[in-house]
Amino acid sequence: MVTRRQFLARLGSGVAIVGFAPATGMWVSSAEAAAATPFDRLPRLDGALHFDVDTRMADSVDLGRVAKQLPLAVLKPGSVADIQKMVRFCGQHGIKVSMRGQGHSTQGQGLTSGLLIESRSLATIHSVGPQGADVDCGVLWREIVRAGLPQGLTVPLTTTYVGLSVGGTLSMGGFGARNDTGVQVDTVSKLQVVTGTGELVECSATRNRELFEAALAGMGQCGLIVRATVRTVKAHQHARIYQFYYTDNTQFFADLRLLVDRGELDGVYNLFTLTNGKIPYQLNAMTFYDDGATPDDAHLLRGISQPLSKATVVNCTYQQWAERYDPIIQRWRDTDDWDNLIKPWQDVIMPDSTVERYVGEVMPTMTPEDFGATGVGFVFRIRRSDLTRPFFRVPAPDGSDWVYLFDILTSSAKPGPDPAFARRMLDRNRRLFDRARQLGGVRYPIGSLEFDRQDWQRHYGPLWPELVRRKRRYDPHNILTPGPGIF
Fold this sequence. Notes:
The chain has helices spanning 4-12, 53-58, 80-93, 141-148, 166-172, 209-215, 249-262, 297-300, 318-322, 326-336, 352-362, 419-438, 453-460, 464-474, and strands at 17-21, 26-29, 40-41, 48-50, 73-76, 97-100, 115-118, 125-129, 132-136, 153-154, 188-195, 200-203, 223-230, 233-234, 238-246, 267-272, 281-289, 312-317, 346-351, 376-383, 402-409, 442-443. Residues 1-13 have low confidence and may be disordered. The protein has an eight-stranded antiparallel sheet. Strands 8-9-13-11-12 form a five-stranded antiparallel sheet. It is of the alpha+beta class. The protein is 28% helix and 23% strand.
């Protein structure tokens, strides 16, 4: 009789695995294949299944380093067919399945104790043109930008850090610095999705719409996005960024609203971080332009509370603008071991009517521990009427066409486990979320927040019964993406 401990030790020594025994819930090695215990053989794959401890350990944590789940196996698919085969296999045996892009959630949303699928091995850009960018799920947004620029094309919206995967951000929503484009899921025209039964389904707003809607910002509950077509738009040659600094909450929001409401700039947002013991609001306003069409600074910034002379002005190429945070992340990796810092992020979407009050309450409570080695925060303002995907949840209507993402992207002061710090930040996040919810806010679920079934039902509100129905239809074995704890 082989104990579980002995079996796991043998996995680490490179034993060849050929199947799975339902009676024991354990993998079967080639040496055990002749034994009497019935087992089901693994399907033939174009890629590879990995059972070694090092590979599984690498996929047992995400960017947050708050949660940990050691998968039974890791699939590095060589084709979409590999994902279909293994999802069907797992469904037959009750093995949970999650897809991992760049692992940038922060509380185990993409982790599992079952099969972990790494999407990065599916990274083909099939085409980029006026009809859109047709790409695999593991492609990074940075790669799409670089592929489109020789044609003068780009995507309507990029995340602030473009080293994220297409499948990952489309499963969550995907915020960026634009104010008039919705979020990334609103820029998608077509998907290919593997359902919980292993079926590959092509879907859009006019074909298999229920799955299309459930996959976009659906957190992987009804299907795994394996390919997407994203709209493309003209890419300007240059970008100009104006930065102003504020210490007054009311003054900052007044200027933010004025600049966004006029609609003359290509994006306005806030970044804040701890600087010399203070937390100034850094208002970033940008405009894109081409050769021979230099922006009129005074006209674009007229009427705000600060003179143009106070602005820090940065000129760069469009590509440099799109990748503006990449060098910062790389520097943190080099100097602070950023990937191994604990990052219990807090993310809420607030209604226009209460966001100024909420941010004004929260900011004075921030301490150095809330920032750590690399902590920053953001405020993004987007139009409610540009949001088209029902499972991307936003606050209830309040008479305004605007909603706001408010991020506190906390990190620990140093890398390595620190359960006490993680616990304090989880408690902080719950306290801040509960106050946000009192003021009409909802969760943007990339952060670190302990949610139970009642919380999720309240999150989806009147859409909860519809989500349950689609879950039963497209994932009848309830195996897909257990990390968020929705089902």
